[in-house]
Every structure is written in structure tokens, then in C-alpha cells.
Amino acid sequence: MSPKITVIGSANIDYIMQMEHLPSPGETVTDGTFAQAFGGKGANQALAAAQAGAKVSFVGALGHDQTALDYKQSLEAHGIDCSQLSLEDEWPSGSAFVMIDRQGNNCISVAAGANAALSPERVHAVEALMLQSDWIILQQEIPQVSNQAVLAFAREHGLPVLLNYAPAHDLSLHLDAAVHGLVVNEIEAADLLDQSFEPGDREAVLKLAEALRRRGGHRFVAITLGAHGVVLSDAADCTYLPAFEVDAVDATAAGDTFCGALALALGEGQSLPNAGRFASAASALAVTQLGAQSSIPTRQAIDAFLLSQKGTDAEGASDTRC
């Protein structure tokens, strides 16, 4: 049976500019290419979980115009329950301006728009939905008080929550055992612990993961390292999984794809290392395509990719330390 996942989070309209290199302050880079797409961390993660095989409900907010209607219909076409995705008359849809260089690196600026309408009252209205969920996924693009309301309800009822603490612009959210799984990148991990580290120092990242897990009482912590892989920490050990080698085009939504696929795999009962490898494969496929939701792979594509890796150095590669 497919796991039931409820994603409470953001939906944005993405305005994508691909260029030779990212501009420095005051610099204008010409000869770019432009595209408009659907994105937002919450909706991206909902789609990633659904594409991987989960039964997904998405709780969010958009403006009330034709683009928002098209967005909602697109999510529904992928089998996502959008009965709790509201269309707000007084707010424009959230928007994100995404600049991408030829190596797939990006810079993103976000305007919250209708995402600010996702209030604690909206959270309380979907408590019955949360109670039916195998996993609840949260991110940091909706009001902090709404995330706090979700965590308080999850704590009260013992519901498993996967929190992607990104973007880490506000570190005030209380992290405790209500967050079963915490997913961050290495910069966010260091910010949460108020520590410095040398990028690329695997030993330092392993220690960050273990420190975060112990401090918050989480069942596990995942620190994503982009093209360098992921570190997973649970009560059993800390494991480093190297990234799959692919030709990167656009890293947008790679982390969101990881989160959605990870929740699906855990909901299926996979072990944390196996779930991490599955999610890493989904993320690797995502970076080979331009755009956010348009890049998220299907379960068939993920399984085929993993099968293609059998017998390679990437098959089963890991390094356990803690």
C-alpha cells in the first residue's frame, strides 16, 4: 500500500533565467534564456513524493488567477489531493526568480505572496488529514507560527514529521523530538548549531549531523552535500553516501526531490541508508533537467537509474563513521 504523505508548505511561480555565469553585484549578464515554471519547496516536495509512488495531500495557498488555476490542475493531474490548496483573492501567488549558470549552480530570490496566508488556523483545519498521514513534510517557506502549530499537534499525537529546515533565514523554530527527521544542507546545519566548518570536510559534517541529532532528539538527520553526496545520522551510526555521477544542468528542486523521495521510501519501510540512496538517485536525476517540477523523476525512472548503477562503484558505496 502506498504511504500517505501530507505536505504543508509553499507553492511558487518560478521565473527562470539561465545564463553563462551568475552576475556579481552591479553586473549585468546578457544573452540569457527565460522560462516560467511551477515551483515552491512545499509543492516540489509533494510532487516528488507523488512521482515516487506516495498518496499525497498538499496543504498550501496560491493567488486567484489563471496561472494559479493551471498550477492546481497540474498538481491534481499528478494525482495529488489539492482539496486543501486554497486560492486567495487578496494575495498574488508566491514567486521565485531563479538564476542558473551553465554548470547548474543557482541563486534564488523568493517573494512569499499567498504563502503568507497559510496560517495556524489553516493548520488546525487539517488536523484530521494529519492524523491519517504516515509522514508530514514541512519546510521554511510558510509562516513560522504555522510550522510551530504543526509540530505541536504532531508532538501531541506522535505523528512523524520530516522537516527540511530550508531556507534557514529564521532559526527560531524549536527543534525537538517532534521532528522525527531533519534534512538540511551543510551550511544550514552549521547555522543551526552556530558553528563554523570548512566546506568539503566530511569529518566535520559527520560531527554536525551527530550533534544535530543528539541536540534535538531526532530519529535521524540528513545533511545534503550537493554533488558530494549526503550524510545520514541515526541512533545506529553515521553514514556517508557519495553522490551519483550525472551531467548537471540545473540544481533547482534537487533538495526538494530528495526530501519527497526520502519520505516515500521511509513510508515504505526502507532502512535509512536505503531510503537515502533512493532519494539521492531521485535528486541526481532531477539535476539533469531544467526547471523545478518539470525535473522531478517518476518511480520508474528512479528504479531504472538505480538498476543501471548495479555493478558500478556507486552501488552500495558508503562510509560509516560514528
Main pleated-sheet profile:
10 strands, mixed
**Rg calc:** 18 Å
Number of helix segments? 10
Q: What is the number of independent domains?
A: 1
Strand content: 15-25%
Distance between the termini: 34 Å
Q: What is the percent of helical residues?
A: 25-40%
Question: What integer is the average pLDDT?
Answer: 92
Instruction: Kindly report the name of the CATH homologous superfamily.
Output: Ribokinase
What is the total tally of β strands? 14
Q: Which structural class matches the secondary elements? A: alpha/beta
Regions with little confidence, pLDDT below 50 for 5+ residues: none
CATH architectural type: 3-Layer(aba) Sandwich
CATH topology: UDP-N-acetylmuramoyl-L-alanine:D-glutamate ligase
The 3D shape can be described as: globular
Order of strands across the widest beta sheet? 5-4-1-8-9-10-11-12-13-14
Order of helices and strands: EEEHEHEEEHHEHEEHHEEEHHHE
Look at the structure and give the CATH class: Alpha Beta
Binding site for substrate: 12-14, 40-44, 141, 256
Pfam family, one: PfkB
Binding site for ATP: 185, 224-229, 255-256
GO molecular function: ribokinase activity
